[in-house]
Design goal:
356 residues; alpha/beta; Arginase, Chain A; seven-stranded parallel beta sheet; disordered C terminus; binds zinc ion; histone deacetylase; histone deacetylase activity, hydrolytic mechanism; Ureohydrolase_dom_sf; transcription regulation
């Protein structure tokens, strides 16, 4: 930055845009899903399975699997009807990430920094690639596919994803790939969508997608976050269209009343064709990172409000589970999905009797 030389000109904007379009159009991630499946996306390979990380991190590394286990054990969701995504390939990631960024991830030192794992716990590189980056790339594949399904079905839930601290150029805060940016770029090209609303209700500010869509008028960002914690990204805050800053210790009643007010404002500000809902559960009371005091019931009501908002506007909604890695998070997310089904905001049963 800051150099004013006029040496060899970079590929033109048009050429770069054309390359991006072609990558998106030739991607395998948007495969056709049988009608017998429900729009819940998950793969057992989402789970980060290696010994020790959970001791160093306030982190339930099998959160994603436990969500599905609760749902299938309780008869809410038929295991055979869950959709398994494909892993995002290098070409898929290159749609937003520069080659150099992906190259840096080949070093476990760089990955450890993004994951904020102490260097003493650094893992052999092959393990980082297999046990950490592969699961994340599967979740990215899920977030991208979710928009296609939402357009077809009205809603889709990726049981993982929501890496909202990662931008095209920079990872951070446990987020290695910019799945939200990718999901939206694919939707622009493949779904013929030109207005997307991000509703980011994770406890942290979503500085990754904010940086990526800073000057993109097609994306409206509503972000409600604890302004006193990570990432304190003041530049990215300028790109939030509707900013709701909370203080540590905010309680359920105040939070939900604020959300009602803000959804009403959002409704009048922007007319989206797709809602991307980043539904982090680190707002839960007791979460060491989020530092808010929202009850489990409060999280369930929050999700219901956002789904109702999308339904009333008749706009497809993608939900990503994002942050929140306490042991209790999986339980709350499963309860919330069950509640959405009970309230007819999502349909986990239809076509069960179809022979399709
Ligand atoms: Zn968070």
């Amino acid at each position: 930055m800051g150099t004013s030389s006029s040496h060899s000109s970079p590929p033109s904007m048009e050429a770069a845009e054309e390359l991006r379009r072609n990558r998106i159009l030739s991607s395998k991630l948007y495969f056709n899903v049988a009608p017998s499946k429900v729009a819940v996306i998950y793969s057992p390979s989402y789970n980060i399975a290696f010994l020790g990380i959970e001791k160093l991190h306030p982190f339930d590394s099998s959160k994603w699997g436990r969500i599905c286990q609760f749902l299938t054990n309780e008869g809410v969701l038929d295991k055979n009807r869950i959709i398994e995504p494909l892993e995002a390939s290098k070409d898929d990631l290159l749609v937003v990430h520069p080659e150099l960024y992906l190259h840096r991830l080949k070093s476990s030192v760089n990955v450890s920094m993004i994951l904020e794992v102490p260097p003493v716990a650094m893992l052999p590189n092959c393990l980082v690639q297999q046990k950490v980056l592969h699961p994340f790339r599967m979740q990215v594949g899920g977030s991208i596919l979710a928009a296609k399904l939402a357009k077809e079905r009205g809603w889709a839930i990726n049981v993982g994803g929501g890496f909202h601290h990662c931008s095209a150029q920079k990872g951070g805060g446990f987020c290695v790939y910019a799945d939200i940016t990718l999901c939206i770029q694919y939707a622009f090209v493949r779904l013929n969508i030109s207005r997307v609303m991000i509703i980011d209700l994770d406890a942290h500010q979503g500085n990754g997608h904010e940086t990526d869509f800073s000057d993109d008028r097609r994306v409206y960002i509503m972000d409600m976050y604890n302004s006193q914690i990570y990432p304190l990204d003041y530049e990215a805050r300028r790109y939030i269209d509707q900013k709701i800053e909370l203080k540590s210790g905010t309680r359920t009643k105040e939070y939900l009343e604020g959300l009602d007010r803000e959804l009403e404002i959002a409704r009048n500000q922007f007319n989206p064709e797709l809602v991307v809902y980043n539904a982090g559960t680190d707002i839960l009371d007791g979460d060491p990172l989020g530092r808010l005091k929202i009850s489990s019931e409060g999280v369930v009501i929050r999700d219901e409000k956002v789904f109702r908002f999308a339904k009333e506007m008749n706009v497809p909604i993608v939900m990503l589970t994002s942050g929140g890695y306490m042991k209790s998070s999986a339980r709350v997310i499963a309860d919330s999905i069950t509640n959405l089904s009970k309230k007819n905001l999502i349909d986990l049963n239809s076509s069960t009797n179809n022979n399709l």
